[in-house]
Amino acid sequence: RLDWLITFLLVTSHIKSNDLTVFRLLGYTEKAGDWKVIEQPISAGSGCSVSDICIETFQELKLRKKYKGIIFRIENEKEIVVESTSDEPDFDAFASYISSNYEDKPRYVVYDLEYELPGGEGKRSKIIFFLWNAPGSRIRERTLYTSSKAYLRLKLTGVSSDVQINDFDDFATVKENIINSK
């Protein structure tokens, strides 16, 4: 039986470890007319953990601009690891590399997209997180990557956009939408 209905949630704190993040939520309950503290563990639905190297490599991309892109994979259906990094400054060339080299393998991809604003308003940079759902990949692989995505994404703080890409044409659409969003 549902004793109360949460109408408002506020994340008040969270505790991180390698395998689990616990959010402490403050929820307003309509039935009781008061606030209630709820602790909600969030982990990878697939049971995959995130390697510390993933977070360190992402920080190098974000803070030190050491890389332009990172490709992550799931190893042995247990752990998300860094597969490779890229210095490719051209987003279209990087997208072409992903779609041609991973046409039958899903991957997580992070790219630091730099672009000119229309009207000469200056340069901007946004870090984008992609779930590359390769068109030729097996359903089991796609399901594993999809169910683990939220957990990896939670670990990578500072990402501007989170997008699922299913084919090469989606890359151009995403780039255009980001540039036009200001």
TrEMBL record:
Main location: nucleus
GO CC terms of this entry: actin cytoskeleton; nuclear matrix
GO biological process, any: actin filament depolymerization
GO molecular function: actin binding
Localization in the cell: Nucleus matrix
Residue stretches making up the ADF-H domain: 45-181
Keywords recorded for this protein, A-Z: Actin-binding
Homology family: Belongs to the actin-binding proteins ADF family.
Identification of the protein by name: Cofilin
UniProt organism field: Ambispora leptoticha
